[in-house]
Protein 1
Amino acid sequence: LGQYFTAIRRLPNFKQLNFIITSDHGMQTLSPERNIILDKYVDTADLKIISGNNPIYNLKVKHGKLEVVYQALKKVAHMHVWKHDSLPKHLHYGHNPRTLDLTLVADPGWSLYWSWHVGTEKGTHGYDPVTDRAMHAIFYAAGPAFKRGYQEHPFKNVDLYPLMAKILHLKPAPSDGNLNDIKDMLKKIK
């Protein structure tokens, strides 16, 4: 970024340019001492589909086995398990058909694995962004549209779309983004 901004400062219109630097998510550090091996708690013969990756899995359970698998997973420490229709609303996928029967999410810094595939990664993402600040994306903005020295409260990445449309004087298509949640970072735009 340093090299990029050094070069771009040489442009004659540099002072007219707006910049946004962001990421799609944060990262959480992992430790091998915080691994949960899921097949220690459930019989994989009771499962039809295992979908996902550390720290989130969705499970399709064989007919008649939902309550057995759910109750077994509810007892596992450092992990949350929800049935298809009872995920917290803030996760925004409680009724999506891709969530299958059960959704498992590890606590921040904990890993979910199966005995046949224990990962060695040092970090990951996918934890609950409401309860784990490490999941928050970075966001830096500068240019004539933005207030100098202003610090915004955490916000949803979907709010960037209407923000960029506003800066570019475009009418945004309908989306889940809300400019009103982050408009205070902007100077008055004509």
Protein 2
Amino acid sequence: MQSDFEERRQYPRVAFEAKGRFLAPDGSEHPCSVRDMSLGGIAIRSDVPLEVGAQIIVYFDEFGRFEGPVVRTFEGGFAIETNIAGPRRERLRQRLEALARGEKIEISARRAFARYAPGEAGLEETAVLNLGDGQTMPCRIIDMSLGGAQVAVENRPPIGTEVAIGRMSGRVVRHTEEGVGIQFSDIPERASALSRPFG
């Protein structure tokens, strides 16, 4: 098993700026930003004091959702340890290497919010699309962000239709080959919405 030093040496921390929000152990939600990140952890800028050992959930617009314990604190923030495996770990490694080379994350130029596959954001693919007139229809979440979602659905509601998935409401803004694109009108502000936006 690698020591912390070996982890840092093999996967150096990359300094960059990315805005986000984190859910504190008491259920409160706070703005924050990345100071630096590696495959093993994230240093987070925040004015909120946390104790070592506190478990938090954090969502960064360009990287998605992370969970982990606070392992150290510093002036103006704290660091958490993360445990990422599988395809997401490889995607994160590629992104961090690109940032270390000075490249920008392309997704930022395309969308106000980065999109993630449901599993990457800790969500279930299967969901129910609720229409404003009371109709419901099963759907599959293709990808999501804090600003919207792409869902696969058999019967596409007309563009402009008011819809909801779980606690998130919005409207259909486009039709796609598999279903519809939804723009959310109530981007989550509460802790429960941050941790399970579609639950």
Protein 3
Amino acid sequence: FLNTSWGHQSYLLRQEFFNAKIHSFTSPVESILITFGGTDQNNLTSKILDDICSICFDYKIEINIVTGGGYLYINELKEKISSLLVLKRGLKINYEHHSGHISNIMEKCQLAITANGRTIYELAHLNIPSLVFSHHVRETTHLFAHENNGFFPMGLYDESSSQNLIRLMLKLISDNNFRQEAFLKIEKNSFAGNKKRVLNLLNAVLKKES
């Protein structure tokens, strides 16, 4: 492992994120993103939607949902969205499956709820404080999603998660100072120099081997 480099200082963002507009702090929260990676094997997308739809309705917050190419619950999710839109007139939900450019959606979101994978680096680059759930125990060992970096690690989703999520989301929505503090912590992270850093590491290895 001495010759292995990993983590946010070695992660190479796709070009779309360098072309995207990086957030400045704004208030109020107008839009939130729910996305849980390529497969979302635990269908956290649906569970989180249930948890936050009433809050978003009350505070007039638009919900943006993005699912990946391996997501198996598309029809059930579409039915749930349709039911919620009938039940709560005025609720705004946008849904995209296997979005080609998720950065376009992130650009308009002030908060996100996501998994503890590569997406958190993309959210960090765009300055989006996020609540982070892990799909499995291994993901809980990914330590970048920490309050020191403007993220709120929620652990594995269990019977207490709904209450904890609602409590924290309400605080982020209603307490501008609390959300701004998270924003300033996430704002310090930069991925702009990672490509050069990785190339320098590779060149150093090649020079050593030659």
Protein 4
Amino acid sequence: RRLHADGFGDLWYLEAKKAGGHEVAPLLVSPDTDEVGAKLSPDGRLIAYASNQTGRYEVYVREFPAGGGPWQISIRGGTQPRWRRDGREIFYVEGNTLMAARVETTPRFAVPARERLFQCQGCLEGRSHQYDVTGDGRRFVVPESVGESRTPVISVVQNWFQEFRQRRQPAG
């Protein structure tokens, strides 16, 4: 991912050279949009990512590295795509809800169903992934608050070394 001066980013990848080594190659370059959170499909033929090309972030899929598509996965906003291990489902965050989109890749790409899985207060829409999913798509790791939220207290101690010396001196 390379960033523009305005903070938006493009998607790039490393391509193996025949003579050895790698070179950076563009995948999706657009000066007025931000592409984030790219994840390759398990078979490596497709890439899921989020883009704000419509004015809000949505999840899309493209062929990799050819770039065919894109196909829109989310319909009411979405970020943080992740693939199920068999490539038949893409998970993403819509608002504070974890979503699942069933996908078909043959004979052509399609999204026959989307489903709300559960609310996830710690999975707010954003640029970075804030959850993870097992390969079978049955278990999720999500951030959740535990107990009351308290403002942390920070204590600053000045001249602590002097106090330390005084406490170490024997009384007497």
